[in-house]
């Protein structure tokens, strides 16, 4: 072929090839089902160690990693994969090495699909509570080779905490022998959760999930919520983000508190919100060089703010018009405008007192908008969007004014790029940004 006959770079042939490759990368189904089933069926033969065990683990990782961008394709197969692995775990004759290997495989699946989806498939009947609790109890938190086992067991225990029966019914007679009493189920779970909130591995994250499910139970919150919150605040007060152990302790504690104020009922959490906010102010997290701690601090602050404010739909919100494109076009051809004018009326609760802590929460969220790390700014942006949707019109307008100041660099050129990005994040967030747009619509009418 002559040089003049060769297709130019970026020509139709090359574009067609790129398009073919792009479509070829899109998976349509879980194609390794048979291989995975065979792989899981051979775990009893390869668990002893050596090359075969590592080859099986690595092959399973390769298969699962292939679906990182399309994890939903695994959904029809999650149940049978979990059943094969849990059969090994629940078999009393399975050696410890085989049980740990099964949990490693479970963790790999969870890492790809996400624990929230995978969590629903764990057995969570009344009969599962004590066996899972016993399995967690015999684990060694210092065994760095089996952290996947502890992580998955804590998640499993968190699901069993959703049973609709009081834990006291499972205790039976706590007096095993005269003068000797054993711990109740409730105390055992709380002790395990607290001990794993301060470990250095990923089991800390699972312990935070466990705490949020356990403490918010109707039978537990009455007797254990105040005790646990007091323990948590003491941990925060004693810890310093300048030491490694302090960072670990604060990380687990902040995760647990944020999850509790997210999943707990407002009337249960409100009596403690002001105390937690004061303790959080004393931690001075914005001064920490740990990005994760600053993010968790912002996350907890916004949850406290939402606890202070009653859930409601603001009366001044933007009224969306007709959602049918055909109907809108028909109205335009008729010379009519479907969009109704925004009529500003006094909020029914305009005279309600806004809790004192709300102003401090918004101040901290605005500080978070100017943080140097995107994940912190993103969390602060979501928090302000959620808070503004529950505020009276006048206060929401003040919040919008403060957000708009993020775009201004006249007074302080340093950090102007971060503030502009923070403002964009605030409006660009897919869900919370819509709430701020309603506020901006109000501001245009004032």
UniProtKB/TrEMBL annotation:
GO biological process: post-chaperonin tubulin folding pathway; tubulin complex assembly
GO molecular function, one term: GTPase activator activity
InterPro entries per record: ARM-like, ARM-type_fold, ARM_TBCD_2nd, TBCD
Tubulin-folding cofactor D ARM repeats domain span: 292-411
Pfam families referenced in this protein's UniProt entry, alphabetically: ARM_TBCD, ARM_TBCD_2nd
PANTHER family to which the protein is assigned, alphabetical: BETA-TUBULIN COFACTOR D (PTHR12658), TUBULIN-SPECIFIC CHAPERONE D (PTHR12658:SF0)
Protein name per its UniProtKB record: Tubulin folding cofactor D
Origin species: Homo sapiens (Human)
